[in-house]
Every structure is written in structure tokens, then in C-alpha cells.
Amino acid sequence: MGADFATLIGATGLLASADPLSLSFNLDDLNQHNFPTEHDVSISRPDAYFGDATAFNASVWNDYISFFSGKMSTDLDTTAIARFSRFENSKRYNPELVFGLKEEILSLAENSLLLQTMGGAGSDKADLRFVRTFIQEQKLPFELGWRPSKAPITLLTLGAMSVEILKKSPDTGNELGTVTKDSYKDILILGAGGLEILGNLTQGISETLGL
């Protein structure tokens, strides 16, 4: 992980900490719906409306990963379709769905991070055996041959891939209408206490969109 991304994760976690002055946080601190990073439309967890949004849900995950049936590795096109289908399912069945700009960003980043963690920085090609082991067994698939990315995964690489996924989504037109340099920057800086380092993610997004 790049220093900028690691810093962002740490700062975001401290926002939820019961004792931020301790400069530490735990998973219980992060178990807050819609704050700071928990959100509806997860690819492997149910929406909070349906129960424990922190526990792996095989049904949710199987619906998502089924779009990759017959493939050996992930790709942006299938990822975009699978993510959008997950959103459509929540929109249809969750009467309390919360999915605004912040949640859109988190959803895109979640998908981008999964691909790059399992496939390498900037790469959308991840061995599906790695992906399944990581999500279903919640462990790093070293025994299958996975190794950490040699290049750092940064806010810039995540931002660029997030927009590529968004551009390939079935409802690209409506979604892209809300994606601007200022809106991303405002939401992200608000969410992480004004960290200047978030400019890197904004840069990745704005460069890809040509803003």
C-alpha cells in the first residue's frame, strides 16, 4: 500500500475511534452504519437494513461473483456489471437504502482495491482463485501463489480505476453526471478531516475524466 492510502485509512479509522487521542482504533469502532467507511451495496456484506452488515454473506457474494462464471481472472467490464447489479438489487429490495455520492465513491474504491490487492497496482486482472479465497476465507492466498503488489497501491491508482469502472457501468450517463473534481474533493476531504493527501485521489479521477 502506498503511504498516501495507508495514511488515509489510518486517519479515517481514527474518526470512528472511541478514543481518538490514543491514535488507535479497532474493528468495533468501524462498525457504524454509513460512517466512516461502512456503506450499503457491499459486494460481500448485506445492507444494514437486512441485518449484520459486517458479517460475510454468502448469498450477496455469490450473486456478485456469479458474473465472473467461466472466467479465470477479473476484468473491468465484468466488475462494472457485477457492481451495478448489486446496486440495482439494493435499490429494489432495501427501502432504507443510502447510496449517495460518498457511498458511490466507497463502492467504486472497494471494487478497485479488491482488484489491485489481488492483481497488482493499477491492474484489473486478478486470479479469481485469489479473489475467492480473500473474500470467502478472509485470508491472503499465499498458498495459491499470490504475492503482494510490487508497485504501491495509491489513491491515484485507485482513483483512476474507480472511474474506469464507473465509465463501463450500464448506467454510466446518470452516474458520470455526478462525478466532478469538486464534488469528489469536497466529499473526500469532509470524510477524512481535510487531509491534503486526498488531492491524489481527486487527481486520478479528474485526469481520467479529463476535468
Automatic annotation (TrEMBL):
Occurrences of domain Heme haloperoxidase family profile (ranges): 1-160
Co-factor(s): heme b
Superkingdom field: Eukaryota
Keyword vocabulary terms for this entry: Heme, Iron, Metal-binding, Oxidoreductase, Peroxidase
UniProt KW Iron-sulfur keyword: no
SUPFAM superfamilies given in the database record: Cloroperoxidase
One GO MF term: peroxidase activity
One Pfam family of this chain: Peroxidase_2
InterPro entries: Chloroperoxidase (IPR000028), Chloroperoxidase-like_sf (IPR036851)
The UniProt record lists the keyword Iron: yes
Entry similarity comment: Belongs to the chloroperoxidase family.
UniProt-recorded name of the protein: Heme haloperoxidase family profile domain-containing protein
